[in-house]
C-alpha cells in the first residue's frame, strides 16, 4: 500500500468521528443514531467520504452539500481510473446511498421545504434536440394529411396556428369540431417517434435516487409515450406516479360517442390541468416543487401555488423560483431538497 491511500484512510476515519460528533451535538439523531448499521471500515474510502459529507451536510447546510457535489464529481472521475474496480464501486455506491437515505428518512427530522417534486418529461428529463422535436412536427403534419384530409402544403401552417390558439393540434382539431380519436392521434404522433435515440441516463438515475421525497411525472403526453421514454432513460422506477393526457382527459375515453365540443381537451398550461394534477397527486402546492421547461407552464404553476423551477434556462423568469440549465445541475441550484 503506498503512502497516499494510507494517509487518506486516516483522514477518513477522523472525518467519520467528526461527523458523528457534529450530528450527535445537533440533537437531530441523538440516541437513535445506533440504528445506522454501517460497517464503514469495510467500505471503500471514496464512498465512505461521500457518506460523511451527506451526514454533515444535514447539520451544517448548503456549503457542505456543495462540497459533497464536488466530491461526487471526483468519484465519477475516479471510477475511470485503472486503480479502481469501477463495477464494484458502483454497486457499493448504490447500496450505500440507498441505505443512507432510508436511515435519513426514518431517523432525522426533514428541514426541506419540499414534500414532493413534480417533473415534466419531454425537454425536462431529456432534450428533444436528439431529434424528437422535428420528428413530432412531421408526425403531426402526417396526421393532418392522412387522417383529416388537409392539403400537404398547408399542414405545417395549420399545425402552428392550432398550437398557438389552442395549445396543441389535438385540442385545436376537437375545438373546431373534428371528431379526432386521441388514441389514434397519439399512435401516429408519438408512435412513430425514433425512440432508439433515447439512451439510458445513469447520472440522472443516481440523482433521482438520492431524492427521498415523492417524485411524480406530469406530462401532456399519453401514458404509453411517457412509460416508453422513462424506461429507455432507465428511470421509470424512480417515480411513484404519472399524471398524463389520460389523467386530465378521462371523458375522451369514457364517452367516445360524445361530440368533440362537449369535452374539450385539457392540457398544461391550463389552470384546470394543474388543479387536476394537484388533486390526483394529493399534494400541498406550497410544499411541492414543479420542474418544467415551458415558461407558460411555470406561470400557471405559480398561480396555483406551486414552487417552480424553469429547466433549460440560465436566468429566472418572473414566475420561476429557480432556473436550471440542465436537470443534472439540480443539487447545485436547489440544494434544500436534501435538507
Could you characterize what this model shows?
It is a single chain. The chain is an alpha/beta fold. It is 51% helix and 7% strand. The chain is built from 15 helices and 6 strands. It has helices at 3-26, 45-60, 62-78, 86-107, 132-146, 155-166, 169-175, 182-189, 202-209, 223-233, 245-248, 251-254, 271-281, 295-303, 330-333; strands at 116-119, 214-218, 241-243, 288-292, 307-311, 322-324. Strands 3-2-1-4-5-6 form a 6-stranded parallel sheet. The model is unreliable at 1-6, 23-50 and 104-108 (pLDDT under 50).
**Poorly predicted ranges:** 1-6, 23-50, 104-108
Number of helices: 15
Largest sheet: 6 strands, parallel
The helix-strand sequence is: HHHHEHHHHHEHEHHHEHEEH
Total number of β-strand segments?
A: 6
What strand order characterises the main sheet?
3-2-1-4-5-6
> Which of globular, elongated, flat, extended, rod-shaped describes the shape?
globular
**In which range does the helix fraction lie?**
40-55%
Mean pLDDT across residues: 80
Content-based structural category: alpha/beta
How much of the sequence lies in strands comes to 5-15%
Separation of the first and last Cα atoms? 38 Å
Task: Looking at this protein, list some descriptive labels.
51% helix, alpha/beta, 15 helices, 339 residues, disordered N terminus, six-stranded parallel beta sheet, 6 strands, globular
Give a nutshell description of this structure:
The protein is of the alpha/beta class and 339 residues long.
